[in-house]
């Protein structure tokens, strides 16, 4: 039985043609023709954008460009891939973890407002699994907003001071590894590019988060077909939304009282799935005290299902049938056990 994988890129456009062209041009670094073309295509659609070597790099240079460092605080949701908190720590600042909204699983904006202090220098709302954490949040917080749209590219319109996106292999579009930063990126570009001029005079302690010409070649071909990719992705999402309870657009996350057991059952049925991110406060580098009950509940009651342009309608129905079969095999005893631990508060798929 062939496994239905969680994510798979759609490389059926000009990707190979452009990469071959990039290699045969002899320009392998960012100085080839594809980086500016890729950036132009991104900028046309989303506003001023620069390509980066990863989403993490985009977040890092965004915070650097704001001058964030020691004694500063940055508000980060407690349920996320760890990169936003890691870049804050890398700059010597403090990530202040805030619980998530129980519906969207994105930053709880009221709790985030309560967490603002004199030291808060920025907020990083994460559009988790492609759900929107909120728009035009700079107005609400009166602080710089660095949107983490690594998972919401193509789904969430960038409205922050800067918006970081990831083009890692499992994302909505991919360049293998890669990312971009959108918005007020002038200063951040210096940090991306090393911070020096043609005489190697540094006016900025810059880094190197540039994208290669080959990656940008793939990226250009991907952006050309973004609408087509989003259309293909929607086929499976429509089926999931009709038949299951859950959330997410980059990955659809189904509600379940026992993610581990469901994951094992799906694996036996040839379906790859993935647990929800660990709540940040439970991991040693980010440990913090506080009420993080919504993130904990999300982590204990969610499982990511295969989502993407590769997922055909009949495969999405097959996944739904297996999810429903797993739920209907739950015994009265196990249901009571889940109830005792509070895990059946999330609705079970009908
Ligand atoms: C929410 C979130 N932020 C940041 C990143 C980091 O992106 P990258 O892997 O391109 O560095 C990811 C990628 O997985 C992510 O999911």
Measured on Cα atoms, how large is the radius of gyration?
21 Å
CATH fold type of the largest domain: Aspartate Aminotransferase, domain 2
Q: Kindly name the structural category.
A: alpha/beta
The count of domains is: 2
What helical percentage do the residues reach?
25-40%
What's the order of the H and E elements? HHEHEHEHEHEEEHHHEEHEHEHH
Q: What is the C-level CATH assignment of the largest domain?
A: Alpha Beta
> How would a crystallographer describe the biggest sheet?
4 strands, mixed
Number of distinct beta strands = 11
| Small molecules held by this entry | pyridoxal-5'-phosphate
Strand content: 5-15%
Overall morphology: globular
Specify the CATH homologous superfamily of the largest domain. Answer: Type I PLP-dependent aspartate aminotransferase-like (Major domain)
Going across the major beta sheet, what is the strand order? 1-7-6-5
CATH architecture of the largest domain: 3-Layer(aba) Sandwich
Average predicted confidence as pLDDT: 95
First and last CA, distance? 27 Å
Number of helices: 13
